[in-house]
Amino acid sequence: xLSYWDLLLLILPVFAIVAIGVxxxxxxxxxxxxxxxxxxxxxxLCMPCLIFESVVGNPAMREAGNVVLPPLVGFGTTVVSIxxxxxxxxxxxxxxxxxxxxxxxxxxxxxxxxxxxxxMGSMFGADSRGVLLIHNMGVExxxxxVGVLVLxxxxxxxxxxxxxxxxxxALFVSVTVNLLGWGGHLxxxxxxxxxxxxxxxxxxxxxxTGVNLANHLGEPRALFEPRVSLGAMVLxxxxxxxxxxxxxxxxxxxxxxxxxxxxxxxxxxxxxxxxIAQHYGGRPLTAVQIVLGTTALAIVLTPLWxxxxxxxxxx
Length: 315
Hints:
With 315 residues, the protein is an all-alpha fold. The chain contains 14 helices and no strands. The chain has a single domain (4-313), classed as Na+/H+ antiporter like fold (Up-down Bundle), CATH 1.20.1530.20. The chain starts with a helix and ends with a helix. Its main location: membrane. This is Auxin Efflux Carrier. It holds the Pfam family Mem_trans. It comes from Opitutus terrae (strain DSM 11246 / JCM 15787 / PB90-1).
């Protein structure tokens, strides 16, 4: 079992790459159209290749329990967390029109991509990322339906359209190819191309996460609001991890899925609510306060939750 300090050293490079992205944006190396284009390349090309490489040929992904249950867990835990965020936000005095809806989504949605992916790979090997990516199908479904509905009151249909993305398509194709055993028949040149694009997905995604965060650092005094920032820290990295660890311990599921649940419970808030709040009439500054606060605290608390959680759950 890895110690707290081992886990801290494991996650520090992840946050360091995010910090590099912040610096690149501040020195104007990445901005404007270049930023939008690079994000599109990561999401529409590199991430689908990473998904394909992580799923196809992965023996863990041939088990029904690692194909059917993970998306259900991803959807269920995300909905529960968003609802908990809504009620916790009311408890600390937030109201609709004053950041409550944005708080619910931002504090409730754990980082499910660029932070847990390298952590899972470093701790449990590359094959472990496949179950996380399948789990994330459920997270995406919850985000673009329940999450968007909570934030803006938009229709289920409007959120559902967002599910038709390159990432979801890549997951569907990858699972199908893997279950049918077609991976071994793919030409070597195709596998090499996919691998070459897959290996840059995580580092480039982390860099662009930092670039996106840097866009909101212009007014340092506005980045911390005690009620919002501290409330999100308590919920995201204090209370919700207990729910995730209890689920990981007592849910009858595979070892791989238990590990995914433990890691997800230790994550800070995801960055994407900042963008969603801008698009759907939420409060982007509230989302920024939550993301920055929980991410900073996660540098210290994530290794603690991982160490304690993995030991308690026994995975």
